[in-house]
Amino acid sequence: MSKLPAPVQRLIDATNAGDSAAFAAAFAPEAVLIDWGKEFAGAEAIAEWNESDNIGRDSRFRVVGVERDGEAHLVRIAVSGKGFNGESFFRFTVADELISRLEIAP
After folding, report:
1. Could you list the pLDDT tens digit for every one of the 106 residues in the chain?
2. Beta bridge mates, 1
3. CA of 2: how far to CAs of 45, 63, 67, 79, 81, in Å?
4. In the Cβ-directed half-sphere of 77, how many Cα atoms lie within 13 Å?
5. What CA dihedral angle connects 25, 89, 62 and 15, to 10 degrees?
6. What pTM value is reported for the model?
């Protein structure tokens, strides 16, 4: 299993701690998050997604696997909480020690 990049680990730790400020700080200001096809562009939209679908739903993440996919990191995460429960692939692109893109897919 590959090692998680620091910003990805910060996002996971922030989610598990319920720390929305730390979650937001893991992303670049112009980052894009795509959750099963629905796009959230920019810091404000990602913060709203976090409130409606992640920390706002008491989500917890457990890393199941990590691999490199070109420049991206493909992380299989088991999600639990008051929203989605199950495993998904999270495809992270990191630039300048921040997450620039996150795609979540089944």
Report:
1. 678 999 999 999 999 999 999 999 999 999 999 999 999 999 999 999 999 999 999 999 999 999 998 999 999 999 999 999 999 999 999 999 999 999 999 8
2. none
3. 30, 11, 5, 20, 26
4. 28
5. 20
6. 0.95
